[in-house]
Amino acid sequence: MKKERDLTIITYALIMVVVFILGSSLEAKSQTLKKTFKFATFYAAVSGGNSVADDNLYSVTNGLQADIIETPFDYSLTLGVRKIARFGYENRANTFYNGTERSYSDAANVGKVKGFEFLFEADWRRQQGRQFLDQDYFLRYVAKNWIAKAEYLQDGFADVEYFEGSQRFRLNVNSKLSFNIGVAQRISEPYGYNPLDEWVLPNGNLHYTSLALQEGYTVDVQAEEYFTPSGELIANSSDVWEQVVVPQVIDDYVDRKRSELPSQWNYSVVLGYDYYQFTKDFWLHSWVSVMPYHLNTEGEYSYFETTNGEQWIDYGAGLIFGWRLNKSLGVFLEGKYNKYWNREWHDFSVGLNYVIL
């Protein structure tokens, strides 16, 4: 099923690429491939460092014993290409892109300039012994009266992955403020579906023993021996079984059940705004996208099953604020927040700078 999901995403992405190319041709017939990639930056970088310090674990079961818990070093491998015009408040702090840059404005609905912009970035990383894959690929075309965007996002830390396309009409109130409204299509795993619901007992507890038996495990209650589906002894006490084996059984079961399910389409109405004001001493950039209404596809695993057929609100928002109060003091606030299918991911930074003159 995952292969079908990936194929569906790739097919949809190719369709959106054609739309962008056609849109670009209609608005600028002289645009060529060279012009498309002009000012784009390709980058690849590896960074790393030590993780948390080694920790000593002591035991007195068979006399004093000490084990050392070691956490492998952290690393990040980043590959990408980007062509996104910088806003007035953005500076290139480094001579080269190294993959550690964070640009909140990439998530805005509207870019700094009209035309075609894109970002393709993959980041393989290990942090405190855990491995993650973060990916963000998007194509965006901004015209005077319309916006089109296609994006594939995988956030390993937030455990969210989806593909989204949107087409919007744009109303420019003035040079700073614009509103937009349109439709959005999203493809994702069936968020909201919980494979464990069928194993919950009337008292709220999980019937994990029956689940394990279905998965092929064997239990000898009298001897307190527990065997894997292949017949290997995996635990010889109920404590080890419940505290070590069962959590892994549940985790494997949930992952397998979710991977077996088909991808879910979400068709939604989307509306939002973008506001951008910049001077040397003050800047404010904010944007919001809200999906207040969704088409009920009546799928068995659609998110409507989670909400009992009720509508819900998905949204994303960002804010970048900076103010130089005088030559010495300045304050800043920047961040973004997203909530899709009741899954949240966000990041922010806030602070002040004071320069002694």
Can you describe what's shown?
The protein folds into two domains: 264 residues, no CATH class; 66 residues, no CATH class. It is of the alpha+beta class and 357 residues long. β7 and β8 form a beta hairpin. The protein starts with a helix and ends with a strand. The protein contains five helices and 17 strands. A twelve-stranded antiparallel β-sheet has the order 1-4-5-6-7-8-9-13-14-15-16-17, with helices on one face. A three-stranded antiparallel β-sheet has the order 10-11-12. Strands 2-3 form a two-stranded antiparallel sheet.
What is the percentage of strand-forming residues?
over 45%
Provide the helix percentage.
10-25%
Largest sheet: 12 strands, antiparallel
Q: How many E-type strands?
A: 17
Strands ordered across the widest β-sheet? 1-4-5-6-7-8-9-13-14-15-16-17
Number of domains: 2
Shape: globular
- H and E string: HHEEEEEEEEEHEEEHEEHEEE
Using the CA coordinates, give the radius of gyration: 25 Å
* Helical segment count: 5
| Gap between N and C termini | 63 Å
Mean pLDDT: 84
Low-pLDDT runs: none
Oligomer: single chain
Helix and strand content put the structural class at: alpha+beta
In summary, what is this structure?
It contains five helices and 17 strands.
